[in-house]
């Protein structure tokens, strides 16, 4: 269980994270999404006690991270795949971590194999690892102490499609056994495939959060009017309300047909009318973050 309450981080006048609250429950994978610079890494670093919050608090299994005794036994953290000592081998890296956590180093070869690093790879120095191999080692490191919680910042970075598919299975299995996963990623389709819950953040603030199926299946219609003022007047006549998004679309809590018919009857031009959620996570992300260039978020 991860609980984040009103977390705020200011750097000078800038609010990198602004009053962010969410919880991650056991047995679920929570996808943490947002464009570059949204505040994901800063939030995760605050949860892990690496960055002090300006205000607010975060707990893991009910305790602030810094007060967890032997934290690696409670929460596995992967914030930067390149953080491992480059001069050590993969095996040495895990053996040292096992010793620090008071665990038998005999588990190391099996743990390396579990993330797809064979005996030869285990004997190589980390500096010779590809980014994908570092991510795999980072995951083995995070899971070494059999924690109940995983906090992973962009763990799919550097993995090939087969590796991403493998990681999805690993995280699903971890959550299905009762584990809690908080996973940030810019790979929206991967998040959509594995996450049960979504927390979307932009400019340091929560844009939306909730059950993935509910968010993506949320009722309503997305409309792109040619003349926003004329469309607002139409909505008032229909006694409906709409919420305008950064990309110029309006989400209206109604079926598409009545809106389209009323618009046609009154000569209000609609450039787009479709059920909300039909475009999946990518569409929801672009609408909420107001990012118009998809390459910005699918990089
Ligand atoms: N140590 C720091 N000093 C000043 N500003 C910072 C610092 N760390 C982060 N920021 C700023 O805070 C904002 C949020 O950054 P953060 O790295 O948390 O975003 P992010 O969502 O993880 O983005 P990315 O996906 O690009 O890593 C950014 O504008 C960033 O420039």
From TrEMBL:
Belongs to the ABC transporter superfamily. The keyword Transport applies. It comes from the Bacteria. This is ABC transporter. Residues 2-228 form the ABC transporter domain. InterPro entries: AAA+_ATPase (IPR003593), ABC_transporter-like_ATP-bd (IPR003439), P-loop_NTPase (IPR027417). GO terms for molecular function: ATP binding; ATP hydrolysis activity. The lineage of its organism: Bacteria, Bacillati, Actinomycetota, Actinomycetes, Micromonosporales. Gene3D superfamilies: P-loop containing nucleotide triphosphate hydrolases. Coiled coil: none annotated. Signal peptide: none annotated. It comes from Actinoplanes awajinensis subsp. mycoplanecinus. SUPFAM superfamilies: P-loop containing nucleoside triphosphate hydrolases.
């Amino acid at each position: 269980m991860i609980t984040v309450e009103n977390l705020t981080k200011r750097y000078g006048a800038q609010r990198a994270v602004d009053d962010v609250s969410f919880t991650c429950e056991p047995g679920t994978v929570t996808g943490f999404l947002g464009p570059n610079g949204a505040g994901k890494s800063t939030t995760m670093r605050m949860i892990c006690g690496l960055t002090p919050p300006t205000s607010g608090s975060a707990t893991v299994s009910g305790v602030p991270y810094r007060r967890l005794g032997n934290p690696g036994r409670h929460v596995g953290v992967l914030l930067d795949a390149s953080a491992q000592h480059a001069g050590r081998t993969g095996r040495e890296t895990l053996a040292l971590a096992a010793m620090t956590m008071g665990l038998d180093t005999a588990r190391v070869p099996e743990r390396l194999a579990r993330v797809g690093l064979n005996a030869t790879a285990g004997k190589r120095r980390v500096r010779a690892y590809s980014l994908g191999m570092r991510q795999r080692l980072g995951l083995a490191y995070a899971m070494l102490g059999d924690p109940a919680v995983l906090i992973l910042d962009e763990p799919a970075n550097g993995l090939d499609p087969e590796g991403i598919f493998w990681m999805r299975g690993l995280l699903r299995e971890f959550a299905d056994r009762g584990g809690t996963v908080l996973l940030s990623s810019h790979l929206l389709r991967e998040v959509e495939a594995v996450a049960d819950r979504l927390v979307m953040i932009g400019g340091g603030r929560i844009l939306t959060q909730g059950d993935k199926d509910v968010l993506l299946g949320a009722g309503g219609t997305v409309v792109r009017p040619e003349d926003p003022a004329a469309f607002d007047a139409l909505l008032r006549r229909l006694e409906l309300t709409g919420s305008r998004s950064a990309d110029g679309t309006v989400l209206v809590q109604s079926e598409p047909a009545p809106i389209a018919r009323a618009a046609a009857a009154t000569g209000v031009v609609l450039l787009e009318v479709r059920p909300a959620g039909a475009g999946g996570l990518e569409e929801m992300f672009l609408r909420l973050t107001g990012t118009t260039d998809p390459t910005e978020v699918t990089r």
